[in-house]
Every structure is written in C-alpha cells, then in structure tokens.
Queue: 3 jobs
Job 1
Amino acid sequence: MPADRRRHRTKLDAAARDREIEFSGIDARADASGRSPGPRVARVPETHVHDTFSVDGIDTDRRERLLEVVLADRERVSAVSATARNGTVGIHHAPSLSRDDLRGTLESLGFVVDAGDAAFETRRASQFASARVAVAVLFGLMVATPYIAVLYPTRAEWLFYDPVTVQYLQSILDSQMATHFFVNLGALSGIAFLVACGPRIRRAIGAVADGRVTNDAAFVAGVTALFGYSTLAAFTGFEGTVHYDLVAYAVVAVTLWTHFGVDDPVTASTTADEPFSEAASEADDEPIAVTDGGR
C-alpha cells in the first residue's frame, strides 16, 4: 500500500497535531515494510461496547495507523482497529459514547462513512472471500499432487520416469485401488468447486433462470461438464481421460483472479449469501487482540 504523501495537510493530520500526537513513530512504521509482528493488543473494559463502521478514504498504511491513534486518544475509547483493505473501522467504547458521535468524529476527520450499517457485511464478505481462496489453493494442491506423482507420468512417460516405474504406476491405475484414487480426486475437486465458486454458481443459476447467458454461467457450465465427463470416465465403462486436475486448476485460477485481479474483491460478495451471526464475549480488564478483520 502506498505511503501517504499528503502529510500534515489533511483533517486527520490536523486532528493529530491538535492532540499533540507524534508523527515520527507513525511515519517510520508506515515507511517500513510490514507491520510489527503479532496482533495489536488493547485492554477493553467489560462494560465497553463495539461498533464497526464502513469508511471510505483509508487509502494508505499511514492513514490507517494514524486514524487508530487519533481515535484511541479520544476519551471513553478503549481500542480501535482500522482496516484499509476492507474499508472498516472497529471501535470499542463506553456505552455513553453513541454511534452517532463516533460517526460524526470520523466524518470530521475527512472520511466518508457509509450511511447504512454495511460494515459488518463488508468485513464478513472479505473473510469469506479469503476462505474461498484458501479452499481453492489447498484443495487444488491436493488434487495436483497425485496427478503429478501418478497420472502425468503414465500419460507422458518419456518426460518422467523409466519404463519400469511407469508400468508399475499403470498397474495401480488398472487395479481396484484406482476406484478409491479417483473417489478422492473427485471429492476434492468437487468440494473446491462448490465452496470456492459458490457465489459464482449462484449468480450463474440466477442468470440461467432469467434466460441470460453470462460469463459466470459459461464458466459453471464448462466446469460442470468437465467434472461430469471425468466422473463417467473414472467410474463407468466409458472410455475417456479423467480430468479432475483441470477442474481444480480452473477453480484456482478463477478464484485467485476474482480475489486479486480486481480493484474491490468484496464488492460483488456483499449480498447476504451466507448466514451470519456474531457473538462476542469479553472478560473484565482482560487483554484482547484488536484484529484487522480479514487481512
């Protein structure tokens, strides 16, 4: 994330100067690569409540850190967590300090605060997006490994092992063990597709129901057809090549592109697709980790 070149020129900088907050330490941390190790820890009283705001304008590491320091310096605020990537600010504060007061403070610092209560939804969408990336990559690797170790050598033996080894691998695929082998690959690639591409599948179903042909519908139809073809080839007398690897590769590629290849990976995921519940319990004067919510 770029450093803030508007130093000492914004409302946030003016507020920091009014509170006599030192800029040197914040600027040094912002110019350094990465955060200090470990989560930020704050001591939150049991009586304090938590509010989360969806904020536009936290566009640099320095502004993120400076906003946390300025808000935490306010009376009756015990902990602050600003997340530039999600555009959210979480604040632990005394009940006597209302949400409207905090919203007014954020706006007075030059930030645009979402009129609705979309902060939880935005942060939740980002967390689900990160989980889908993890599922796609991990399950993709679990599918690719047996293909690289067993199946690819039998398909292009001149690139891999000696003929004796290839013949041994082929005998494994011709045995009853191959059924368990393909069941594992089919389950892994299928779960990765359903979990990692869940929102895309729902959008595709909606488009087809409306009689529209979209990129999502084309992708889902192609992957489903490839998965069905591979299943027929693996478990029936149908002569064909099992391509669960291509299913996994497609899922990984599309998931990574959706997450990292667009400006705002959570914009299309902020609808209430997944059930959401939040439970929070805090012990009196126990230290808690102020997390960055989906970083």
Job 2
Amino acid sequence: MEARLERIEPATGDGPAGLVLARTNFFAAGGGQPGDSGFVETEDGRQIRVVDTVYAPDKTTVLMLAEAGAALPEPGATLVLHVDWKRRYRLMRMHTACHLLSVVCPFPITGAAVGEDESRVDFDIPDASADKAEITAKMMQLVSDNHPVFTRWITDAELDANPGLVKSANVRPPRGTGRIRLVCIGEDGSVDTQPCGGTHVQETGEVGEIHIGKIEKKGKINRRFRIRFGPLPA
C-alpha cells in the first residue's frame, strides 16, 4: 500500500528512527504479538528496511522503526509499504493457535507471547495435571473443523455486561475509544469470542499442524504451555 510520510521521530540513544505515516498496514507490537518488519520503497525506488513496528509513548502513534544508518526521505514523500508477509502469516497462524488453546484449556490466562516458531500461554489451572497428547488432539480437531475466524465490535457497556469474554486474569482490554474489538471463532462466535487486537487467519484450517511441545510448572497451579508448528514428536 502507499502512504504519505508525515514525520520522522528521531532515534533515541542507539535506537532506530521511527517513521510516522498517514496510514500503515504494519502491525505494532502489542498483546503479546511482535510488531511487523519489512521495508518501505521510496519514490526513487530505494528500499529502507523496517526492523520493527511499535507504538510511541502516547500509545496511539505507530512508529515504523527504520534500519540504522538509512538515508530517510523528507516528510511529505509517498512511500510504498511492504510487510514481510511470510513472517506475518506465521504470526497470524500462531496467534490463532493461542486462541484455540484457550478454548481447549478454559482457564484464566496469566501471560502469553506469540512467536514465529513457538508461542506460549500461561494458565492458572486448579487441577494442574495436563496431557500434551490429549490437548494437541483437541486443538487439531478445531483446526480440522476449519471454523471461520472473524472480528466484530462491541461497546464498553456491552463488555461490562459480559465480563466473561475477558480471559486474561491480569490484563484488561484498552478503553477510551468507546468500542472493543472481538475476535470470534465458529459460526456466530460459537467456538470462542474474546477481546483481541492482534492479527489472525480467516479459518482455523490455515493454522496447520501444531502441537504442545512442552508444559512447564511455573507455580502451584500455574502452567506454561508451549505451542509449536508440526506434529507431536513420537
């Protein structure tokens, strides 16, 4: 996509400079999902690598962090934005897999992080016994069923009236805009519906083969589940 460069946020210390554009298709890190990388193409055909995408301290401005030492264009220039799609799609598949795990393990989530090759979700589980093969099989059934994945919006008041939509024990959805984004799985969200601002695939079948690679004990009732691509090792 094309977008106009509005301004450049100077680098701080050894950090990269941030490009602020009128609009962007780059996802800014948040909710446990890393920010996008890729490159922008200038009007004269040069490519400037974007090493990360984050929010500025104001929590609303998106900064596309340029590679160190790059000759940056002047504000007002039109840039073509190229997301590293291969990386983004793996993150979309993994993020969706985390939602599927929260369906199979319907317990309070105490932490999560999405990665390209491995993701983790932490749960407080009253009965802390868990079987990797059993959980993997249940997740793969949801993948095989190829449920639709979609988003919809509700108001702050609707969320207040349905507090069970929030699965995180420690983090609440951001407020202030008057509406909350929900990610839904299954017809009418019958499989899962929860607030989330990340990126996901459109059908659970796109997740592909996944498995629980490890379950770690992090407390008396807290367990960390590590999701990995591929079949469960023999």
Job 3
Amino acid sequence: MRARNPLYIMAKPSHEAQAQIIALARNDPGRGADLLHVTLVSLFDLHYAPPEWLPAVIAALDSIDAPAFPLAFDRIENRKAVTLRTRAPLAEARAFQAALVRHLLERKAPMMLGTTPEPHVTINYRGDRLGSQKIASIGWTVEEILLVESIVGQTTHVEHGRWRLRGAD
C-alpha cells in the first residue's frame, strides 16, 4: 500500500528561520515556506485508517504538557533529498520525541508507523547530487507542535491541530 495521506506530528520553523532556509541556494524555490517542517513522529496513513483514529490522536494531544525545545541545523546533506541536518546530538529534540511517543501510547492513541525520524528539514525533494556542506547554523525554539496530514503528490499540508509547548510565549 502506497502512502496517500500520511499523518505527522511536526514542528515548523520560525519566520526568521524560514527566511534563512528560503535564502539557501539549494532550497527548492518552487515549494512554499509554509511547507518547511521537521517531522517529529510519523503516525499512520489517514486514507487507510478507521475514521475514529484521527479524533483519538487529537484527544491525546489535547493533554500534552511538554517543554519547548531548541532545534538548529548547520549542514546541508544530499541523501535521497536535500536536507538540513546537524551532527550535534539534538538531545532535547530526541527527548521530546520519546516523551511524545510515550504520551500517545499511554493514552492509547493509534500509531501504526510510530517512527521518530532523525530531526531534519527537507529543502529539496529532488536531490541535487552536490554532497554535504557546512552552513551557518539555522535554528529556532519549537514552541508548538502541529498535527498535519500530507496529501501525497499535491504538495499540500492539511492542519488538524496545534498545541503550544510549555515555556512558549
């Protein structure tokens, strides 16, 4: 089964970080800044999921109480796509991901995929074969998380909710 409407919990860059990312020569200028994101947890494909799964995830996220955390990327890497990454451990982001999965599991939220990918920002899905390069650090504090459905093949995100993190203004 090919993914059609995958559901993710993600963080979006601040406006300042978006501007820095868009200014990168290797960023795909055809994609809008509103699509830039860091996937924190991949949940399931809404196309194949029972209708009660989405409300169950939303209900679980309604009780989230977690601290804001920093993200910063200082490298561009070309794997299957061009991404912003770092060699730093991103300990706070990884701790947040683990706590988020625990929170969802404790509330019996459905998580077929349940993966916590290495935090990164994809800036060009086509890849450019230019290899890796160091860049000035681009970072922000993640102050909210979003529940987003990606419409595969349509370059579209459908937001299903936002939740502020503790310590966010």
